User: Which sequence fits this backbone?
């Protein structure tokens, strides 16, 4: 028996979520009295995963897997899970992870639970806690099948160092037909995406118009952050719809979320409340966002943001 985690990588480098699922898998393996095995696909160096508890890394390299294809990747993960006698398979909650989990679950006839925020509270019955109702509530879910597939919610368990002496073995995976009529041929943005971002700088209607987004872009660039916006801003065409966050937009689970000129309506908060630290800049001290904020600045964004940029630049230069 083992716990298999899929350590996803991009251009050969591990994503932070990969380190989180390895940390998570290590803990679950300890609870079950077994080992965690990390699977990598076309990653250049797997040794980083030993730092987070992966005693064993199974490395698959194949040109046919250069582009993500859920069916092909899920087949590889299933094959490795069977070869490693894994009863628990863990993936991250990225778009790719959410594609993979149900296919792996069908392949293994496993129970599958997404949005999981913690290691099992009990391994018999196997009980996991998951977020529900737009992250406003939690539920405990029992997975009663022999095999289990868990999707770990981003930034919920965290990355934990647990240095072990690991080893890597290569695996010749069977490549199945992709079976799809579309494929990703190009990545058109080099910017940090909202899903992967550690820091998100988001702005709302308080910025008055699209011509004022320069300072938001600049603040994001200084911080290495992704940019986001409230729904009205994308509805008005000030920013692309891809940046709209909230209940009807993208969810955000960053370490830091900076909200500029956003009122903090419940539909907005529903999508961002998984973020760890929230900083709010708003002229109105009664803005509802302040109740959800960890740090608040009552002030005019057009004065506060340029000062913040200046200070951050000076700090980085020092
Ligand atoms: C079914 C439904 C789904 C929805 N889904 C979403 C969603 O997913 N995401 C979302 O964001 N909204 C969503 N909404 C809309 C939501 O209810 C709010 O209307 C919206 O979030 C408000 O956007 P805002 O805060 O940018 O604008 P406003 O409500 O207009 O707030 C602007 C804020 O900027 C402040 N401000 C003004 N000038 C300045 C300044 N110079 N400096 C600093 N602050 C300033 C104001 O005090 C105010 O608080 C949804 C609504 C419905 C009905």
Assistant:
């Amino acid at each position: 028996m083992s716990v298999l985690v899929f350590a996803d990588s991009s251009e050969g480098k591990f994503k932070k979520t990969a380190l989180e699922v390895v940390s998570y898998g290590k803990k679950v393996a300890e609870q079950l009295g077994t080992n965690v095995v990390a699977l990598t696909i076309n990653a250049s160096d797997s040794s980083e995963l030993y730092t987070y508890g992966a005693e064993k890394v199974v490395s698959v390299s194949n040109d046919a897997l250069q582009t993500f294809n859920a069916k092909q990747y899920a087949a590889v993960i299933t094959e490795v899970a069977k070869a490693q006698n894994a009863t628990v398979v863990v993936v991250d909650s990225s778009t790719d992870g959410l594609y993979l989990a149900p296919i792996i679950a069908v392949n293994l006839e496993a129970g599958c639970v997404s949005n999981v925020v913690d290691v099992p509270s009990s391994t018999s019955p196997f009980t996991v806690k998951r977020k529900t109702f737009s992250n406003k509530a939690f539920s405990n879910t029992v997975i009663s099948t022999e095999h289990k597939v868990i999707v770990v919610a981003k930034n919920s368990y965290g990355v934990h160092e647990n240095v072990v002496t690991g080893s890597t073995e290569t695996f010749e995976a069977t490549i199945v037909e992709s079976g799809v009529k579309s494929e990703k041929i190009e990545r058109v943005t080099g910017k940090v995406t909202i899903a992967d971002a550690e820091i998100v700088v988001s702005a709302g209607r308080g910025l008055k118009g699209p011509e004022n987004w320069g300072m938001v872009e600049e603040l994001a660039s200084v911080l290495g952050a992704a940019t986001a916006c409230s729904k009205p801003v994308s509805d008005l065409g000030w920013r692309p719809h891809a940046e709209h966050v909230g209940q009807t937009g993208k969810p955000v689970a960053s370490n830091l979320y900076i909200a500029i000129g956003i009122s903090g309506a419940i539909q907005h908060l529903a999508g961002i409340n998984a973020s760890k630290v929230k900083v709010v800049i708003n002229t109105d001290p009664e803005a509802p966002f302040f109740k959800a904020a960890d740090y608040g600045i009552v002030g005019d964004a057009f004065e506060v943001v340029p000062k913040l940029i200046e200070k951050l630049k000076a700090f980085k230069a020092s």
About this structure: The two ends are 52 Å apart (CA to CA).
